[in-house]
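Tokens as discussed.
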């Protein structure tokens, strides 16, 4: 019986090749789009779920009130981890991680590599498998190092790295005690080597201050310990350890599941309530709608062909076919078509994955060795087939044989039909996506056009490593004297990033509540204003060469002056970080964090602070390439073992728009695919409409109707559906974009012309889609269509 159904299904598909192609193409593109999105969603949702103890691993976080709002942040004091492990029996282990970048040398190979300082228990807590080595002892000695498989290949080629010596920053030798399998692409961790925490103590990077929040702390709770219970106990640990000191803290501690950290990173009222999970939800909805739209095509085209299959259904019912079997037959046909479409979709996915990975910055792939993927594939085909075929199956199987065989069966021409509703759903979603894409792009352009407050052109920075700090004065002077740069300055961080902040400061007129004002910190030695291109509003720049006392000088930005309520800021004394800083100048606000948010209060401090970065302004009299070549010679001269890496401020600033651009590009891509799938359906419907009305068109032409009038007659029904879709899509898109734009302090207004543009685009696309068949039908020779009458 089933083989007979298969033959009938295949015969129907082959007999109607154009219909079959449109259905398969629409389903294939829809399924491929959904698969790509689902691969990305699966990767996002699975971040750090692979750890064997993931259900018991939590990150420790801080919560406190600053600037009138309750904030949450994940950096913690270095002392927190061992204290929690010692004082709370619920904790099985606690480990810390601290970013580091060192020069690793093997023979004549020198690589700048990013890794972690971490505690001995790191490899036992987290499931990063070792290819060689023992997880319990790999980090138990001060001069041991664990490296990834990729780093091992870079340093040692195909040789076994175990026991080999790696020189760190040309000062200390480390023995390779473990080689890690390369990190999976669904983890928040990002390192190529692990160093023991004890080495950080040796080089003086460790401290026991409860107010220095600079590391990530993870705890492994014992079995059957609830998060809620532990949170209640650990909440006041920082407060209790600082209450009898001169620096009493009000900071509370709370936990977050490691598996939730990737998706939930947005702080709101002291809780992590959103973040990347919002984007995941958005694209899950897009994937569902794209697949739905592809299925709608199948439904519409199947029901549009109803009159062609009506006699088949009628005869089969007369000879005894049950409605249940007819339904199974039609659903079986749709599942077979879904299988063919799935094979084509997988081909599309495999061909497009490299480009898609580049777009989303991932390494996604389909793991066919995993049984779960095969089960998902089967379920996906059946689900799509049943979803696409259910309505046509019930629709076709419901025909009355008496009416069909008498020829009195007639398709409905009602004002509202299921087919029209489905077309409206298709184009409503497509038009809403077009509107959202336009608004996202305009918001990005708006933020990009916002004045950054500093001159990014020809501004370059590099990080202080090796002997750079020791020879800084010589490097600075030579960069200027050889014509590579016109000015040079040191800073606490790159101009486009925030490395440090502080609170507990006081100033003339400050109240006790002002101590809970958080200030971003930068640093400078000389020529900050000239190099960065920021504007001085009052006073002068810091210059330790001209004014030796500027080692304790400070510049404030306008937002800081406003928060401090200083009427005459220049000359004011600011008590901060255990010292008295004298304000020498005020700079105009400039953007160092998000260009979508307001600028926070900033203090630029003199050399008594600390430095990580050198900025220099390239000489405009030379080409950029020549300036960089001259600069590279200088750095190689004074720091020969370190590879020279220059970063451009304008490129770093552009990275601030990366996530929004990615979201906008993906939205535009899938909006285009949605339109394409919808138009395939329109094209098919227009084809069958023209076939069904061929005799009517012939009569109208004989009676003198023009090609234009017939084309308009055949097109107007579809255009009305698109216009109705626009009416529905407009408030939906407006509401979604209004809610999205509200999350940004600086944002555009949703303007009326965006909806008009989206409407014109959708109407034009729909018109072009159906006009081909309409014009073709209108110019056909009426003699051919009427010769049987």
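Sequence:
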């Amino acid at each position: 019986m089933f083989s007979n159904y298969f033959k009938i299904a295949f015969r129907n598909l082959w007999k109607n090749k154009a219909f079959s192609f449109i259905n398969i193409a629409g389903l294939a593109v829809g399924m491929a789009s959904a698969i790509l999105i689902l691969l990305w969603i699966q990767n996002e949702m699975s971040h750090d779920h692979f750890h064997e103890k993931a259900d018991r691993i939590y990150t420790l976080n801080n919560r406190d009130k600053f600037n009138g709002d309750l904030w949450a942040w994940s950096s913690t004091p270095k002392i927190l981890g061992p204290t929690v492990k010692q004082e709370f029996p619920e904790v099985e282990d606690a480990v810390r991680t601290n970013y580091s970048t060192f020069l690793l040398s093997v023979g004549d190979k020198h690589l700048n590599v990013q890794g972690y300082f971490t505690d001995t228990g790191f490899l036992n807590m987290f499931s990063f498998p070792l290819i060689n080595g023992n997880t319990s002892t790999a980090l138990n000695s001060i001069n041991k190092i664990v490296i990834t498989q990729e780093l091992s290949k870079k340093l040692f080629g195909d040789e076994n790295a175990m026991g080999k010596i790696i020189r760190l920053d040309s000062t200390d030798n480390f023995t390779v005690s473990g080689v890690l399998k390369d990190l999976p692409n669904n983890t928040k961790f990002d390192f190529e080597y692990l160093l023991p925490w004890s080495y950080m103590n040796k080089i003086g990077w460790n401290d026991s201050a409860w107010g220095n929040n600079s590391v990530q702390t993870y705890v492994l709770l014992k079995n059957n310990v609830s998060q809620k219970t532990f949170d209640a106990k650990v909440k006041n640990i920082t407060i209790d350890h600082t209450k009898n000191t001169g620096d009493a803290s009000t900071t509370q501690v709370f936990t977050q599941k490691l598996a939730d950290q990737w998706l939930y990173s947005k702080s709101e009222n002291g809780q992590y309530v959103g973040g990347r999970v919002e984007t995941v939800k958005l694209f899950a909805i897009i994937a569902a709608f794209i697949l739905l739209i592809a299925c709608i095509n199948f439904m519409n085209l199947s029901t549009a062909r109803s009159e062609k299959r009506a006699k088949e259904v009628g005869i089969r019912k007369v000879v005894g076919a049950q409605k249940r079997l007819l339904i199974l037959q039609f659903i079986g046909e749709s599942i077979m078509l879904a299988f063919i479409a799935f094979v084509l979709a997988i081909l599309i996915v495999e061909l497009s994955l490299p480009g898609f990975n580049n777009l989303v910055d991932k390494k996604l792939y389909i793991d066919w060795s995993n049984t779960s993927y095969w089960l998902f594939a089967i379920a996906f085909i059946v689900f799509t087939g049943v979803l696409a075929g259910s309505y046509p199956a019930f629709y076709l199987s419901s025909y009355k044989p008496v009416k069909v065989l008498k020829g009195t069966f007639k398709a409905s021409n009602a004002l509202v039909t299921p087919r029209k509703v489905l077309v409206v759903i298709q184009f409503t979603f497509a038009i809403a996506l077009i509107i959202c894409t336009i608004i996202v792009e305009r918001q990005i352009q708006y933020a990009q056009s916002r004045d950054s407050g500093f001159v990014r052109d020809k501004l370059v920075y590099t990080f202080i490593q090796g002997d750079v700090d020791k020879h800084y004065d010589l490097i600075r002077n030579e960069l200027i004297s050889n014509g590579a740069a016109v000015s040079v300055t040191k800073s606490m961080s790159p101009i486009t990033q925030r490395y440090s902040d502080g609170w507990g400061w006081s100033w003339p007129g400050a109240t006790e509540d002002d101590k809970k004002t958080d200030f971003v910190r930068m640093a400078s030695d000389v020529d900050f204003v000239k190099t960065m291109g920021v504007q001085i509003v009052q006073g002068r720049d810091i210059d330790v060469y001209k004014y030796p006392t500027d080692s304790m000088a400070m510049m404030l930005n306008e937002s800081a002056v406003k928060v401090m309520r200083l009427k005459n800021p220049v000359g004011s004394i600011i008590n901060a970080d255990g010292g008295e800083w004298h304000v020498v100048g005020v700079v105009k606000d400039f953007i160092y964090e998000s260009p979508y948010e307001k600028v926070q209060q900033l203090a630029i401090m003199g050399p008594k602070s600390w430095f990580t970065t050198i900025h220099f302004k390239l000489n405009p009299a030379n080409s950029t390439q020549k300036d960089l070549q001259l600069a590279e010679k200088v750095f190689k001269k004074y720091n020969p073992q370190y590879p020279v890496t220059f970063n451009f401020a304008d490129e770093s600033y552009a990275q601030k728009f990366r996530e929004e651009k990615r979201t906008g590009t993906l939205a535009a891509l899938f909006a285009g695919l949605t339109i394409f799938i919808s138009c395939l359906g329109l094209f098919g419907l227009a084809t069958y409409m023209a076939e069904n009305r061929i005799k009517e068109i012939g009569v109208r032409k004989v009676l003198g109707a023009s090609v234009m009038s017939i084309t308009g007659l055949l097109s107007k029904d579809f255009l009305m559906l698109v216009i109705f879709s626009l009416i529905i899509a407009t408030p939906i898109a407006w509401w979604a974009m209004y809610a999205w734009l509200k999350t940004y302090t600086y944002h555009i207004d949703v303007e009326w012309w965006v909806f008009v543009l989206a409407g014109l685009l959708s109407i034009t696309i729909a018109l072009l889609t159906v006009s081909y068949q309409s014009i073709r039908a209108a110019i056909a020779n009426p003699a051919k269509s009427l010769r049987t009458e």
